[in-house]
Amino acid sequence: MTALTLSTAAAPGLRADAIVIGVAKGSASGSGDLVVAPGAEALDQAYDGRLAGLLDTLGASGTEGEVTKLPAPAGFKAPLVVAVGLGGEPEKDAGYDAEALRRAAGAAARALAGTKKAAFALPLADAGDLGAVAEGILLGAYSFDTYKESNRKGAGAAKAKNGKAPLAEAALLGGKPRDAAHKAALARATAVVEELNRARDLVNTPPNDLDPAAFAALAQTAAKDHGIKVQVLDEKALTKGGYGGILGVGGGSAAAPRLVKLSYSHPKADKHLAFVGKGITYDSGGISLKPAGHNETMKCDMSGAAAVFAAVVAAARLGLQVNVTGWLALAENMPSGSAVRPGDVLRMYSGKTVEVLNTDAEGRLVLADALWAASQENPDAIVDVATLTGAMMLALGSRTFGVMANDEAFRSTVVEAAEEVGEPAWPMPLPEHLRKGMDSQVADIANMGERMGGGLVAGLFLKEFVGEGITWAHLDIAGPAFNEGGPFGYTPKGGTGSAVRTLVRLAELTAAGELG
């Protein structure tokens, strides 16, 4: 990842390849003119106070994420100025929004690919702003080139020809190296984003290299590195335990399923959170096969498990005073002679029976077993994360995840936590009248119900497998988990690491005694 440093050096004398500044639309003054954000005073002075006018001439508007480059003025050791849009200017005495800073830093970091060092002179009102800028840089500079020729030994020439290396180093001007709050903000940003980028790597890894066993092995290695207890249930253990949902979904693949339990504990913790992740390492749809055009990105169907994995490791690295257990329900959904069929009935780990009407509604089956397993430890709350339904994408689009829960106050807490860290989320209901559509003549419940409101139906199904009296929330990240469009802000094309920051924030709130 990009190396970050805190610097109190003056911008003119700092040796770097570029200086990044912020610009905004002058909405606070009502003029609509371009405004240079705090942090760029020395640069504006070197332009005789005409920096905003010069950028306006070059076409800059201050729109969020917009990047404008121009030569640095005389007297600066850095040859290039990169002006990045922050959106609207904040009201008087109000600071810039943390997410605007995060996105601006990410857009600038992406634009500086191939650069060795950049100095970021964005507005830093406090340690929170510094953390947001640090996160944005590390998120925006992400690249996945494991399978590129440029990443193979001795391929330096190919790197130069085919692609640019991520920004190597970033100095945060205004960051104080000896300030405890600033150092803590930088350390937190580094730990969280390193694990989020680990999740992105997992989502981007081709399914022929990331089957359930390979995923479990990576989790075991990371757990050992960070003092996390790990338990892996293989096919034999799953059969002995009666995990019918996971076994049913994974039965059609030559790659056997796994259930991974990651346990981080703090000696002074008195609260326990359980995170449950859907980990379908490839989803063909099974016998209910997906049509062409709908299966090419299905390596991303393990994004929920990747988010849970990353969040547990991040909690351990941050030393949060809360016990966090992560459950990764890993399987590959493939058609074969041994695959589960529409009409089959599975006996789940909870003892309930499920009639499988559609084998492409498989995520809820593996989650059901994992939710019931998590419930046996009676945690203070369970949060599951899954790329569960296309219906949620139709409802909320590709950048917002839906949040359902069996407790309205907890649902609000989750949504607020997501928004606080910059992850768009929206509360969704669980209408009881939709439950009847899952009634089955031959089993306790069917895995499909009414077509309309399919995302809500899936949430109601999962609710059936949460232990009585346990607070629970369900995050359907089908939209934002995998970006099929172009990169924007700090979000790359491909795996995004959706929900990692929300889960970490929930763990932090619990550790601080602010959750329940």
3D structure, described in words:
The chain has an eight-stranded mixed beta sheet, with helices on both faces. Strands 1, 2, 3, 4, 5, 6 and 7 form a seven-stranded mixed beta sheet that branches. Strands 12-13-17 form a three-stranded mixed beta sheet. A hairpin with a 5-residue loop joins β12 and β13. The longest helix is centred in the middle third of the chain and has 25 residues. The mean pLDDT is 95. The chain has 516 residues and is α/β, with parallel strands linked by helices. It is elongated.
Give a quick rundown of the structure:
Helices cover 33% and strands 21% of the residues. It has helices spanning 41-46, 51-57, 98-111, 127-140, 156-162, 180-204, 212-225, 235-241, 244-250, 303-318, 363-375, 390-396, 408-420, 454-463, 500-511; strands at residues 3-7, 18-25, 34-36, 67-71, 80-88, 117-120, 169-173, 229-233, 258-264, 272-283, 323-333, 345-347, 353-355, 381-386, 401-405, 425-427, 445-446, 471-476, 482-483, 494-495.
Roughly how many Å apart are the termini? 36 Å
User: Helix share of residues?
Assistant: 25-40%
Mean pLDDT: 95
Given the C-alpha coordinates, what overall shape results?
Answer: elongated
Annotation, overall tally of beta strands: 20
Structural class: alpha/beta
Please describe the biggest sheet, giving its number of strands, its sense, and whether it closes into a barrel: 8 strands, mixed
Count of helical regions = 15
How are the strands of the biggest sheet laid out side by side? 8-9-11-10-14-18-15-16
Rg, rounded, reads 24 Å
Low-confidence segments: none
Looking at the chains present, what oligomeric state does this protein adopt? single chain
Strand percentage? 15-25%
